[in-house]
Amino acid sequence: MENNNNEKHKVRMAGTWAGALELELDKWNVAMLREEVAKRSNCNPNSINLISAGRILRDHADDDDVTPTLVQLGIKNNAKILSTRISQEEGLSIKNHIIAEDERSRRLSRLKAAATALAGRHADGSLPVEDFNIEVEDQSGKKVQLGSDTDQRAVMMGLMLDANGKRLIRQGNYKDALEVLTMGEEAFSLCDSKVLELIDNVPILQINMVWCYFMLQDISLLSEAGKRLEMARAGLERSHGKNFLRLRLLQGGRFPELALHLRLELLEGVVAYHTGQLEKARKALTSAQAKFARLQVSDETLSAVMNMGFKELNAKRALRMTNQDVGGAIDLLLEEKAKKRQKQMEDIQRRNEIWEQKKYGMTPLKKPVDLSRLDELVSLGFEREVAAEALRRNENESDKALDDLTKPDTNSNLQEYIESRKRKRQREDRDSEIESYVQMGFERSRVVAAVEGGGTPDEVMQRLMMPHPAAEAVANTNMQNQEANPNEVANSSAPLPAPQNVENQDVNNNHGEGASSERDVEMEDELSADIASSDALGDYDIEVNIEGEAITRYLAMLDSPPPQ
Predict the structure, then answer these.
(1) For the UBA domain, which residue ranges apply (predicted)?
(2) How does DSSP assign 420-451, residue by residue?
(3) Is 429 exposed, middle or buried (0-12, 13-18, 19+ CB in 10 A)?
């Protein structure tokens, strides 16, 4: 039987104030209850903690700003609630801690939502809102297409969260890093397992998760850590090959995995030590110690590489990955420099391609014009913009687009549409230019006359600064010249800005109405920056000083006599 809105309930209080309170559970919230208890016990509300069923009752839910009622918090009629008294300073400290935790929870939720949105836009072939593409690369830095759109989306989301988690690890924020890496692991789990065998990101993520356990000194997660390390080792063998054969071929005989395996063996040794498997722990830690020794860079080899003009951090990284070979390290650094330059050029080209695709607009199914098919049609002698419109209308089907281009009536229709679109762009650009001058304080009628006179922005500004009659005379002369030579108008004007036509506006909404306004730009920019700053060898580039100290400490614990 449902309670009516005015029905009174009872809660039994104990602790600071003991007794029964009559209230309406569906109308009262935690703050109201705390206020009532404080009034009855003659103390400040900030000094009251309320506990029900072993949990502290909070004013807000973890992921929401809405204040829940007692019913929504699971408080029932005749429930027992304990009130405890704390100092006001402690109460404020707890309150601040709760607020900080709520903010942290909201931020992590925003991060996950942003990763989901970015992956969705960059994995299904749709035209991205941004001027870049997120792509998946193998260990050699080559772009790869993995499985279906669903697999690609899952991998992209996992990679973004993984990159963000690694940045948090570098900052020493292991708690948040663990949360983000857990979300990344969940994203990867949505991908076909056969696809995941091609990449080593998942086992590396699992190693990093256990590293967070270790740095947080969370012994309670030992069993989970052991399972993750087993999966990580098996995963690395699948992706790198037996005895690292595949990785060695991809990396030209180099040894980028040493630091990663040092961390893996250290963690395996720590788990074995704390679970009483002392011989297994000694074996793993001794192997990790040998790798640590191999990763120490001598001053002589470091100086030799730095004398070639390379920075210390880059020189150390290259020497570690080439087994201290100076010539090999220099070759690696030159290769990485060339790859970085090539990637920058490809990024510029892709940005230009995205800009061009946005200019043409989207197909009926919200896909961009296929530029490779457009190039094929242009090579046959068709005008680029007309061919692009034919592809756009025909969902990038080259044969249908070719039919439209070779039929006189449809070709004429395409050209008329292109011309009308150009005129619309020019009108919009003209209106935008007029508004910019009006905002400077010039009279609108004078601005219209000056802009219609043509010329560069400097020439327009000069006319606006002239006395009225002189400005009008110059504008009239320019307009007469334009009428006499209509084909030269574009040449006498400054380059047009990126067109803001209807098709471009549709690009921003290609994932549903209002999608652009719902974007969490701050979180998306953070994720994009993390991805952009990563490189193919970044996962193997680990400073192992903390690992070295831990290896020494645990080996000393193994050598020390057991307590009597």
Answers:
(1) 296-336, 368-408
(2) HHHHHHHHHHHHHHHHHHHTTT--HHHHHHHH
(3) middle
Q: Which helix (H) or strand (E) is 22 found in, with range?
A: strand 19-23
Q: Which two tokens stand for residue 203?
A: 């086992």
Virtual CA dihedral for 440, 444, 445, 446, nearest 10 degrees? 0
Angle (deg, nearest 10), helices 222-240 and 201-216: 150
For residue 355, give the amino acid letter.
Answer: W
Helix (H) or strand (E) holding 85: strand 79-85
CA angle 98, 102, 104 (to 5 degrees): 115
Structure tokens belonging to residue 515: 């999608």
Q: Are strands 9-15 and 19-23 parallel, antiparallel or unpaired?
A: antiparallel
**Percent of the chain at pLDDT exceeding 70:** 77
What is the mean predicted confidence (pLDDT) over 100-108? Answer: 77
Dihedral (CA of 452, 454, 460, 462) sign: negative
pLDDT digits over 130-158, tens only?
555 566 665 555 666 666 777 888 888 88
Q: Please give the model's pTM, rounded to 2 decimal places.
A: 0.61
Rounded CA separation 203/185 (Å)? 10
The pair of structure tokens assigned to 531 is 């991805």
Nearest to 506 by CA among 378, 392, 418: 392
Q: Show Cβ contacts of residue 390 under 8 Å, excluding neighbours closer than 6 positions.
A: 377, 382, 401, 402, 404, 405, 414
Tokens at residue 496, please?
A: 């047009």
**3-state DSSP of 280-339:** HHHHHHHHHHHHHHHCCCCHHHHHHHHCCCCCHHHHHHHHHHCCCCHHHHHHHHHHHHHH
Is residue 369 within 8 Å of 391, Cβ to Cβ? yes
Q: Which of 95, 75, 85 is nearest to 15 (CA)?
A: 85
Query: How far apart are the C-alpha atoms of 123 and 112, rounded to whole Å?
Result: 16
Segment holding 87, helix H or strand E: none
Contact 446, 468 (CB under 8 A): yes
SS3 144: strand
The Cα angle at residue 546 between residues 544 and 548, in degrees rounded to 5 = 65
Q: Give the CA-trace dihedral at 140, 341, 158, 251, to 10 degrees.
A: 10
Tokens of 188: 């990867």
Check if the beta carbon of residue 137 is closer than 8 Å to that of residue 536. Answer: yes
- Give the distance between the most distant pair of CA atoms in the chain: 106
